[in-house]
Structures are given as structure tokens and as C-alpha cells.
């Protein structure tokens, strides 16, 4: 496989933008795609603003930040991804959308290009099931916020090659991340572990044993978590968290311990998705 120099990122939402920021900060060229020019331009402006704040805090020089900005490119034409040695898909957790994107990428990119998905819970094997070279498809799961969180899950589908996995592990280390290789199982490692963290908190809240604020405070003070389960849902997006729970529950064929909570579903239905919508369990002032 070719040396990774230019990385395409499909999707300019919270995760896609965070991954692009990380890439350009680490000395690589990033090509950020979204279907709407205004959307991708807003994401680009947001990334550059966050880079400026890094310089203001003197965590990097002004020159370093300006060079990082120059490595940030945007496009609304997926055909431009022909120049990429690695593509990371970071679109919503919908299997049919991801599979369609990978089918398009297969026609555009070189056969040497690694196609990675940032999915948090969907099957890598299933996502890659319709393309001719599933050996070059793997999971490459960052955590929010991507520039800060150290862990990256590298997920091997049933047909993912060892070369693909090794290349992604090496690239993650170049981003100063801590990669961990895992099998293509529901929820992988972190999201499987995390389901009780969220689900039990929702049950305790709904049973009126403790309030949202009390549960978060206890988990931080007694459990030494940096954020409580409700604060973290607001940061990630309640819709994203709920979709992951649904996926894990379905993938385990309805195993009770992974069952989604109806209150979280009601939050999604109401449009109260967390920080990105002005508030969820907390207002944005929290």
C-alpha cells in the first residue's frame, strides 16, 4: 500500500470535522467532503477557529497553525478522492448510507487506497459486503472529541487484510493516538462496555432514585469519570448515543442488558439532542 499523505474524510459533522482537525495538526493533508457547499464551508471555518484557539493558548505556534490550515481542503465532489491513500467515512450511523458511499469510493479510488469507517457499532463485514475488495476495508473508530481523546479502535472485518490493519495502526500512532485492534463484534470494545454506563443511568433517573445532576456528580466524584453519563450524552449527541444502543441491542438479538430506554428515544423524538441543538439533559451553559 502507498504511503499515506492525503486523507479524505466523508462527512463534515462533529466527528468528521474533529478527525480533519487532527489530521492537519499532525502534518497530513485532509480533503473534507460533504454534499452541500455551505455545510462543508461552515465545518472548515469551525476547524480553523479551533486551530486559532490552539495558537492563542500557545499550544502551537502561529506558523504551525497557519501551515495546518493550508493542509485543509474541502470539496463537494467525491471524485476528488482519487488522490487519497486513505479515506475515512464519518457519516450518520445508517448502514445503507455507508454501504452506498463505499461502493462509490471503490469506483473512484485506487485499489491501493484503504477505505475506513468511523462507525461506532455497525458491522465492518456488513458495510464492506458489496464491494470487490473487502480486504482494504476496516473500522477506524475515533472518540469525541477526536483531536483530544487518545484511543482509536482499529476493527478487523472478516475479510480485512492484516496489511490494512497494520497500516491503520501505524497511521494512528503518527496521529499520536493509542490504537487498539479488535474484532468485528457488536459495539466493538468501548461501546459495548459503555452501554450499561448510559442505560443504568437512564433507569435510575427514570425511577426517580436520583436526578440527572446527582447521577453525574456521583459518577465523577466517586467513580472518577471526567464526565457523567448525561453530560457525555449531551456532548456526543443523544441521537447518536441512542442509535448506537439500538445497533448493539439488535446485533445481540435482543439481549436484555443492551435494551434501549424509551426516555432516550423521547429525547430524540423531541429534537433535544444535546449541545448541537441548544441543549439535551442540560442547557448549553453547562
From TrEMBL:
The Gene Ontology biological process terms listed for this entry are:
fatty acid beta-oxidation
Q: Give the molecular function GO annotations.
A: 3-hydroxybutyryl-CoA dehydrogenase activity; NAD+ binding
Task: Give the 3-hydroxyacyl-CoA dehydrogenase NAD binding domain ranges.
Answer: 6-185
Does the keyword Repressor belong to this entry? no
Q: Which UniProt keywords apply?
A: NAD, Oxidoreductase
Residues under site feature: Important for catalytic activity: 141
Q: Which residues form the 3-hydroxyacyl-CoA dehydrogenase C-terminal domain?
A: 187-283
* Pathway noted in the entry: Lipid metabolism; butanoate metabolism
The record's comment on protein family reads:
Belongs to the 3-hydroxyacyl-CoA dehydrogenase family.
Protein name (database record): 3-hydroxybutyryl-CoA dehydrogenase
- Write down the species: Cytobacillus depressus
